[in-house]
Design a protein that fits this description.
Elements lengths: L4 H12 L8 E5 L4 H12 L3 E3 L2 E6 L2 E10 L3 E4 L1 H7 L3 H23 L11 E5 L7 H12 L4 E5 L5 H6 L6
Helix pairs in contact: 1-2
């Protein structure tokens, strides 16, 4: 479908150009794969680019399966269905959450250095990732953007399953 993330970003930017007319827009890329896609979107829209750091909460015995996500500002999203199906205990959840929240803080410092995050208050925010599987990370990113004062949050991704995309309409405008 796409040659690489650059190609995905260019094509996603083409879809957004003309649809986003708000001049008070900021683009937030989810590290790592979403940042190169977000770069192309920000360039095309002439918008500032920042990162939004969230981490998937992986089931202890199968870390690629997310039971939720955490993000900057203490945002926490839990998929109770996955927790039940994977039989994740409260203690396991706490252990994974503490580790991933520390990683959120570490990565935010690494990506931004001493620079403060872009102020989102009253702005239209476009959250960009390179694709969506379970939606936990994207959901957390949208919630973080709302919590940081965004007036409107648009989720823009080049690929994702229709069911997952539909479920994210609760968190993205």
């Amino acid at each position: 479908m796409f040659t690489d993330r650059h190609d995905a970003g260019v094509r996603l930017a083409e879809r957004l150009t003309g649809r986003i007319t708000d001049e008070n827009v900021v683009v937030l890329g989810l590290p790592r794969g979403g940042v190169p896609v977000a770069f192309e979107v920000a360039q095309a829209l002439g918008a500032p680019l920042d990162v939004i750091v969230v981490r998937k909460l992986g089931v202890p015995f199968q870390p690629e399966l997310g039971f939720g996500a955490v993000g900057e500002g203490g945002v926490r999203v839990i998929n109770s269905y996955v927790v039940r199906m994977a039989d994740v205990t409260h203690e396991e959840m706490v252990t994974v959450e503490e580790r991933e929240q520390a990683e959120v803080l570490r990565r935010a410092r690494r990506f931004r250095g001493d620079r403060a995050p872009v102020d989102l208050t009253g702005r239209t925010v476009i959250v960009v990732d390179d694709g969506i599987a379970t939606g936990g990370t994207a959901r957390a990113a949208c919630q973080v953007a709302h919590a940081r004062g965004a007036s409107r949050v648009i989720l823009a991704v080049p690929v994702g399953t229709p069911d997952t995309i539909a479920s994210l309409r609760e968190d993205a405008d």
